[in-house]
Amino acid sequence: MYYSILFCFKFEGINNVILNNKIVLIGYMGSGKTAVGKELSKIFNIPFIDLDDEIVKVEKRSIDKIFEENGELYFRKVEHDCLKNILKSSVLSVISLGGGTPCYYNTIKMLNDNDKVNTVFLRASVNNLVERLSKEINHRPKIKNLKTKTVLSEFIGKHLFERNHFYNKSKFIINTNNKSINAVAKEIELFLT
Ligand code: S3P
């Protein structure tokens, strides 16, 4: 009896958190937003939405093509509008943003002011990001011309310096260095329940 009361209490506690809040993953390219997002979607049994994929569906062309044909400012506007549309839905979900999403318009404030949203920053060191990104650089318009690890590392260092200002405003911050996707997702589960 005692255990079942405890169980119900915990179960209700979990539901209170899970059922009221979308999880929005924030972080630099290569920080694991998509992989961790998919894992969280399994853990909580809620849909996973990748903002880049939604933009590709709306624009009917790749992110690379959008940058090439219309430039970054156009992309940022589409990205912001797309996110606003996703947030209109009352369906609970895990949403993985693009690396630059929280750094344009009033996006990070809009997210943090929304009491149905938990923003989670997946923090990774420059070295970890360089290791992950140097293997998959070609489809990323912001860094695809940076061919050596030294140049990439310098670029990411400067870029993170600017972007951390926005990322650090997230409600939760998780250090992902040298942790598996599953370990990061489990840590987020603990934070949120
Ligand atoms: C970008 C990150 C990309 C994508 C676009 C721009 C950025 O998303 O939105 O290439 O400015 O950091 P991921 O962080 O999912 O790679």
Query: In what range is the share of β-strand residues?
Result: 5-15%
Order of helices and strands: HEHEHHEHEHHEH
| Tally of helical runs | 8
User: Which whole number gives the mean pLDDT?
Assistant: 90
Highest CATH level, the class: Alpha Beta
Q: What is the number of E strands? A: 5
What's the CATH H-level superfamily name?
P-loop containing nucleotide triphosphate hydrolases
Under the CATH scheme, which architecture would be assigned? 3-Layer(aba) Sandwich
Work out the radius of gyration.
18 Å
Shape: globular
**Ligands in the structure?**
shikimate-3-phosphate
Count of discrete structural domains: 1
Question: What layout of secondary structure does this protein have?
Answer:
Layout: H1 2-20, E1 22-26, H2 33-44, E2 48-50, H3 51-59, H4 63-88, E3 94-96, H5 107-112, E4 117-123, H6 126-133, H7 149-167, E5 172-175, H8 181-192
Parallel strand pairs: 1-3, 1-4, 2-3, 4-5
Verbal overview:
- With 193 residues, this protein is of the alpha/beta class.
- It has a single domain (7-192), classed as Rossmann fold, CATH 3.40.50.300.
- It has 8 helices and 5 strands; from the N terminus they run αβαβααβαβααβα.
- It has helices spanning 2-20, 33-44, 51-59, 63-88, 107-112, 126-133, 149-167, 181-192, and strands spanning 22-26, 48-50, 94-96, 117-123, 172-175.
- Helix 3 packs across helix 4 and helix 6 (126-133) packs across helix 7.
- The longest helix has 26 residues, at 63-88.
- The radius of gyration is 18 Å and the shape is globular.
- The chain starts with a helix and ends with a helix.
- Residues 1-19 have low confidence and may be disordered.
- It binds shikimate-3-phosphate (S3P).
- Shikimate-3-phosphate (S3P) binds next to loops.
- Shikimate-3-phosphate binds next to loops.
